[in-house]
Write a structure and sequence with these properties.
about 120 residues; mainly alpha; Arc Repressor Mutant, subunit A; two-stranded antiparallel ribbon; 6 helices; about 70% helix
Length: about 120
């Protein structure tokens, strides 16, 4: 209820924005998955997946919430840019630019020796 009141007043906190983006993203993904008929991708080789997941989770957590949303929706969930654009209420071109910025931010945060905090 507090988040709804904040939205009406334009007083979103960073936690509120992040939470709202996550909820909207998940609802939209559920909607698209239902429309696709529950299509799933099987992963055959999970060797090293835990380490890769930890590194990826760290990197994604460092992104701005909207960058995180477009990067995960497109690259992890496999949604086309057009669907991601509809999800966030922006044009395809603006979403492609946002996706490019998210990739650039992710690249800057990675160093050859490990994490660049």
């Amino acid at each position: 209820m507090r988040l709804v009141q904040e939205a009406r007043n334009g007083d979103f906190t960073e936690v509120g924005v992040g939470w709202m983006v996550t909820v909207v993203r998940n609802r939209f993904i559920d909607h698209l998955r239902a429309a696709r008929g529950g299509e799933r991708v099987e992963v055959e080789d999970l060797a090293g997946a835990e380490v890769q997941f930890d590194e990826s989770a760290w990197l994604v957590a460092k992104l701005h919430p909207i960058e995180r949303l477009v990067l995960v929706a497109h690259h992890v969930d496999g949604f086309p840019v057009a669907d991601v654009a509809r999800m966030i209420g922006r044009s395809e071109h603006a979403t492609e630019s946002l996706l490019a910025r998210a990739r650039a931010t992710a690249r800057r945060k990675i160093t050859p020796g490990g994490r660049n905090e």
